[in-house]
Design a protein that fits this description.
178 residues; four-stranded mixed beta sheet; 10 strands; 21% helix
């Protein structure tokens, strides 16, 4: 083997070793599990002290429905999806314990993207829910309806335990300080 060829092979090996090392350290950093699609593509049941049993993603994001939506039809379009990202899937979602597989369906949004619905409720997460278990979108009225967490029985959770419904009205998402 010529010296030039040997140097080329050595350089390629060094690049591959560096790439493997970077991947290994990235997956060991805190929070890497939340970014894995396989974890996010699972619906699970969260037992909340304030809301009872509600759905969340495997990454710990509360799952919401919008009162203006209908089965197989999302009214959240344009800037709405920046604040309320639809649960879309390139592969089917799976269900965790307590989640009804018969309620999980995919439908096609107006521009061809796929969205998950549960018992006829199109599903979303909320941009202001920053950590696992946050439910900051409860009762927020914007984009033509009111947002509530979804229960494992397939209903919107419109009341906190022991309290009446609280609705937060916002005239514009820009009011959030983005």
């Amino acid at each position: 083997m010529s010296l030039r060829r040997l140097l080329g092979v050595s350089l390629l090996a060094a690049v591959l070793i560096a790439a493997i090392g970077t991947e290994a350290s990235a997956s060991s950093r805190p929070g890497a599990a939340e970014r894995r699609a396989s974890k996010a593509d699972v619906l699970i049941v969260l037992k909340s002290k304030s809301y009872g049993s509600i759905l969340e993603t495997g990454a710990g994001r509360t799952v919401y429905g919008l009162t203006a939506d209908k089965p197989g039809k999302s009214t959240c379009k344009g800037s709405c999806t920046s604040y309320w990202p639809p649960l879309s899937a390139k592969k089917p979602w799976s269900e965790g314990s307590g989640v009804k597989s018969s309620c999980m369906k995919l439908f096609t949004r107006t521009k061809g993207a796929t969205q998950l619905e549960y018992c006829g409720i199109p599903l979303y997460t909320y941009i202001l829910d920053k950590k696992a278990g946050d439910v900051k979108g409860f009762g927020v009225s914007e984009f033509g309806g009111t947002w509530y967490p979804v229960s494992p029985s397939g209903h919107l959770v419109k009341t906190k335990k022991g309290k009446s419904t609280t609705t937060t009205t916002t005239t514009s998402p820009s009011g959030y300080g983005y």
